[in-house]
């Protein structure tokens, strides 16, 4: 899938002023880190959104506003916190995660999870109570009720996932801090993403190259959006 | 309903499998492929933006990686941040250019086996119209005084890098308190490239290392107004680079063997020759200084240190 996206992107953008291997590996790292982070965030966020959306409990409003606050958490601060956690002196120091894609996944996970939780929560809450009651009345288990709700709220949830993906892939502050923007001497990216590469090119005054990388990033986000919308529209020929 | 549930679970399952497969594929770079014992290891080098932005490190690292079958991860941060990363044990070796900060790093017990590596020089650059008329000056203090007196815009790195450290030293030498600069003093808080770009946009003066200036020469409108010692300018604009291994006694997991292999390579004939031959637009950017017939003891110890100063070493 990554290869396919790379090929389509290059068809859009055309000639590159840099080595093919360099640009390919940067796109690969960007997509790998963001897609894994968003997948993991979705797996965590969706159950939380369903749970909070269904249950009435004291402090629900407070919890909701905490989640919504998390959506605007500054990425540089997240980067610093993750850096302290994975740095050698930090609690996860023995795992040697600093300057690795895995550390970048951690920080993007923290950034994307509140967005996905918050937007899905809004979507799930808007599914009417009587739909859930009907599913329950027809003998559905709690899981069935949850699935019906997900199905009803699928557009909202898709929007949530896309918003989370958008936040992850366009983010530069935290991946620069925890990833270190590393590319090896043969031009293969290890922790260099499109955003950090743009930052590097701009720093060197290569604004044209930076603009081309920016165009690639926009095309990538467009493509991922198109794919998700496409997946959302044919839901097993149900309607 | 049941079928849909199964589909849902299958989708979740395959999603998780894809995610995990990605994890193992990318994190499996430390596998043993039967080569020599050092093969496959990773050396983390934190360094300044100038060595990375000029492209020198790619040239230097490729032969080292080939010879030992290892990977060098270069993190370009600026001298202050590079040393800070090394202090917390997140890098194995540092290549920086601020002797006072290097000395502090060694004195605090975090660095060991320092070597002089190479040098170039700093230059004071500015727009072609030169409002403070410093172009004729061959003295850095005089030039800075002229800039301050005419309140011409001056761009400062402001990022605790080697160049920023040097800039502050030069202001102090010129007898000007850099805390009290007016609005003409612009702190960009970024790398050399950013500072040069900003200075170029503002038609301002700035202090740059010659290497980064030359490598960006085509993209900016700035000219060299005060030359450094490479072109017979004042000695105060000297820019020496050092390389220091992280002390394995301070951080026992650092890759000390590989760090010393790297220092050996880069200060040896092969590395020094690459530095000597590295050019941008036919100009040599860095001058090797590690090879010398005569002993140079001062490169191993903090500046001005001697055994008799230190009670513990008698």
From TrEMBL, chain A:
Highest taxon listed in the record's lineage = Archaea
Topology term for the membrane: Multi-pass membrane protein
Q: Which NCBIfam families match?
A: ABC_perm1 (NF038017)
Q: Which UniProt keywords apply?
A: Membrane, Transmembrane, Transmembrane helix, Transport
Q: What is its main location?
A: membrane
Q: Which family does it belong to?
A: Belongs to the binding-protein-dependent transport system permease family.
* Localization per Swiss-Prot or TrEMBL: Cell membrane; Membrane
Q: Name one Pfam family in it.
A: BPD_transp_1
GO BP annotations of the record are: transmembrane transport
- What is the official name of this protein in its record? Binding-protein-dependent transporters inner membrane component
Q: Where do the ABC transmembrane type-1 domain residues begin and end?
A: 27-228
Q: Which residues form the signal peptide?
A: none
A GO-annotated cellular component: plasma membrane
**What CDD domains does this protein map onto?**
TM_PBP2
Does this UniProt record's set of keywords contain Nucleotide-binding? Answer: no
Q: Which residues form a coiled coil?
A: none
Entries under SUPFAM superfamilies matching the protein = MetI-like
Instruction: List where the protein spans the membrane.
Output: 26-54, 61-85, 105-124, 210-229
From TrEMBL, chain B:
Q: Where is the PBP domain?
A: 39-270
Q: Could you tell me which PROSITE patterns the record lists for this protein?
A: PROKAR_LIPOPROTEIN (PS51257)
The record's listing under InterPro entries reads:
ABC-Tungstate_binding, PBP_domain
Short name of one Pfam family: PBP_like_2
Q: What is this protein called?
A: Tungstate ABC transporter permease
Originating species: Natronorubrum sulfidifaciens JCM 14089
Q: What is the lineage of its organism?
A: Archaea, Methanobacteriati, Methanobacteriota, Stenosarchaea group, Halobacteria
